[in-house]
Write a structure and sequence with these properties.
The structure holds 2 protein chains of 2 kinds. Chain A is built from 9 helices and 17 strands. Chain A is an alpha+beta fold. Chain A has 3 domains: about 180 residues, no CATH class; about 90 residues, Tick-borne Encephalitis virus Glycoprotein, domain 1 (Sandwich); about 100 residues, no CATH class. Chain B has 2 domains: about 110 residues; about 140 residues, Four Helix Bundle (Hemerythrin (Met), subunit A), CATH 1.20.120. Chain B is globular. Classes of the chains: A alpha+beta, B mainly alpha.
Chain lengths: ~400, ~260
């Protein structure tokens, strides 16, 4: 087993020095699928002839498990300990371990682990026993996931599209930085951003206090250090026409949130009143200076939810989707994700950043993921077994 | 109910847990279970109330995850005590819950009501709760292993003791798998990738491999020195995954799992 690991390490190092980093583009459709089918056929063939070819059994016996698991653990630990910045400095950089996911060494060991797992999964199915269902599900699902991760790695398309309001767009930027054409056009019809109520912090000694008070209307407030803060005026759409003036209510593009705060020192009773605002890309912000040299400030409001209403037009259909974070749109093999907006403009953003992802292995991997969930639930249900049962299970 | 009221609930819960542990050592099993259960119930009431006041699940910050960890540790301790009748197990779980509760009292964190859009997912609550339960089970497994390993009498662990230890690891690992998978399904819905090799994910996978290795080593091995050392090592990896990566130079500024 140790010899196998040394061989893999040597082969990985040799490939790294001769070919550079592993580039999965050669696994793009249909080659990834063709290779995966052949790989699966080879594993079934090997298992089918395991009684004839005794050496095959050494690929999925206990020693093989332990070795492949231990080697994956060591590599994953290195993955966690070495900064993954793609640097070529030092031994880790020279061996390609600073970009582990495209390192030949890591990928060869992953293929080895997947092969052991695959042979074991096929063996489990071959010798089907109902009480071993959780183990079979785990072996099978992990095998499917890692096989998809290896052979599907060249098959995924990711295109980032920056959509201006009302302008159809069919071009985007692929993950390799090159421009890419989508098989459909996207038009941003509307962008809606919902924000959390403003937070007021105390700014003193050139640092923002971790404590804050939430201002969600007149009368709200709280204590910040020695100051009791109370909101006496709240404008959700405010504008300041000159630097010296206060804020006025204005329904205008770029309108910001402004609050009129009254701060009272809890010891001395000293009182100060003034406007505080985070400002916007059009109207300036404002802080309230307190007599002790500190200030009350309002950082930019945090986004609670943002949503893009997008019209998608392809050769076959035209549909309108509401896309938000965690709620992608699905169009055939494509999923469209909400990833960003113009944060400098906040709720007045006129662009939306979407990411279109095509993942041909989605269904297969999803099924495998749900198999793991089922296996986990079964393991929990059967987890507190008797000693005898546990001996038999030999996870 | 807010963070300021936490010390009152915490003190009441800890007193119940301590009284439960005392009863256990005095061999009053029913009293031990009732008192410890009451302590956990008080703790749970705070968590539920806090959830309602925050208007979001209290699972976002490190302090909030410590709340769940304290709660689950106490539940696992009660479960183990009711199953095996080891009073010291209840004592250890009480001690651990007490430590995490004290950290939350002495190092209060600002519990903002905001929940960034990526966290507003159906997967958020089950993902974190399942992980916290897993951490509690694996924490209990480590405590149990350390007790068996370092106890004064140099005897080998009995079959019953091995069975308890293995069951804790098996269930903990099952929940670790559930947590990881839920996280992957969530990530796919949020930004299109199941797995991005974020430092947190990398350390979670290392922890998963490490416990899986124990489960594969165990059936053919009774060398308790090796196995208990391995469990302790695995638990250190788990700590790295939970909070250690925040201190790790290789993970600075590159993880989306910072809290």
């Amino acid at each position: 087993m140790l010899q196998r690991c040394v061989l893999l390490l040597g082969a990985g190092t040799a490939l790294h020095f001769s070919l550079g980093r592993a580039n999965p583009s050669f696994l793009a459709y249909p080659w990834g699928v063709i290779l995966a089918v052949n790989y699966l056929y080879l594993l079934i063939l090997l298992r089918a002839n395991a009684d004839k070819w005794q050496w095959v059994k050494r690929w999925y016996d206990r020693a093989a498990y332990i070795t492949s698991l231990a080697s994956m653990l060591v590599l994953t630990l290195l993955f966690g300990l070495i900064r993954q910045d793609g640097s070529t400095e030092g031994l880790a950089g020279v061996l390609g371990l600073t970009q582990m996911s495209s390192s030949w060494i890591f990928n060869l060991f992953l293929l080895h682990f997947t092969t052991v797992m695959g042979l074991k999964a096929i063996d489990d199915v071959w010798h089907w026993r109902r009480r071993k269902l959780p183990n079979v599900l785990i072996h099978l699902s992990v095998f499917i996931i890692f096989t998809a991760a290896i052979f599907g790695s060249g098959d995924k398309e990711k295109v980032k599209v920056t959509l201006p309001l009302g302008v159809p767009e069919q071009m985007g930027v692929a993950h390799d930085g090159l421009s890419a054409r989508l098989p459909f056009a996207l038009t941003l019809k509307e962008f809606v951003l919902d924000e959390y109520p403003p937070h007021i912090h105390l700014y003193a000694m050139e640092a923002l206090s971790p404590e804050f008070v939430v201002i969600d209307g007149e009368g709200s407030g709280g204590e910040l250090g020695p100051w009791r803060v109370e909101c006496v005026g709240y404008l959700s759409h405010a504008a300041r026409l000159s630097a010296d003036s206060g804020y006025v209510d204005m329904q205008h593009v770029g309108a910001t949130t402004a609050v009129l705060l009254k701060a009272v020192h809890t010891d001395t009773g000293q009182s100060v009143e003034g406007w505080v605002s985070c400002g916007s890309h059009i109207f300036g912000g404002s802080t309230l200076h307190l007599p002790d040299g500190s200030q009350l400030v309002m950082p930019q409001r945090e986004a609670k939810k943002y949503l893009s209403r997008v019209e998608v037009v392809s050769a076959k259909q035209s549909r309108t989707f509401d896309i938000s974070v965690n709620h992608p749109a699905t169009l055939g093999p494509w999923k469209i994700y909400q990833t960003g907006y113009d944060s400098a403009r906040g709720r007045w953003s006129t662009i939306s950043v979407l990411e279109c992802v095509k993942d041909g292995w989605y269904t297969l991997v999803h099924i495998a993921m749900w198999m793991i969930l089922a296996a986990g639930a079964l393991l929990f249900a059967m987890g507190w077994g008797s000693r005898k049962k546990q001996k038999e299970e030999k996870v | 109910m807010n963070w300021q009221s936490f010390p009152y609930f915490a003190i009441a819960a800890v007193l119940c847990w301590l009284a439960g542990t005392l009863s256990a050592f005095r061999k009053r099993q029913r009293g031990a279970l009732v008192l410890s259960g009451l302590g956990s119930a008080i703790f749970l009431v705070f968590i539920i109330g806090f959830w309602m006041v925050l208007d979001r699940p209290p699972l976002r910050t490190m302090g909030e995850t410590r709340l769940w960890y304290s709660f689950f540790l106490s539940v696992v301790g009660i479960g183990l005590y009711s199953k095996c009748r080891y009073p010291w197990m209840l004592g250890f779980s009480t001690l651990m819950s007490l430590v995490f509760t004290l950290i939350n009292i002495l190092k209060p964190e600002i519990h903002s009501q905001t929940l960034m859009p990526a966290l507003q997912s159906l997967w958020f609550v089950p993902h974190v709760i399942v992980y916290m339960f897993s951490y509690a089970m694996l924490g209990a497994a480590t405590l149990f292993a350390l007790y068996l390993w370092l106890r004064k009498s140099p005897e080998e662990p009995s079959d019953e003791e091995w069975s308890v230890c293995d069951s804790l690891v098996r269930i903990g690992w099952a929940f670790l798998s559930l947590g990881m998978t839920m996280g992957a399904l969530w990530a796919k819905e949020a930004w299109g990738d199941y797995w991005t090799w974020d430092p947190k994910e990398t350390w979670a996978l290392a922890t998963w491999f490490s416990y899986l290795l124990y489960l594969h080593l165990r059936p053919a091995n009774r060398n308790h020195h090796l196995l208990f050392a391995w469990l302790t090592f695995s638990f250190i990896l788990l700590q790295m995954c939970w909070w250690g990566i925040n201190l790790l130079p290789s993970a600075q500024g590159v993880s989306v799992h910072t809290y």
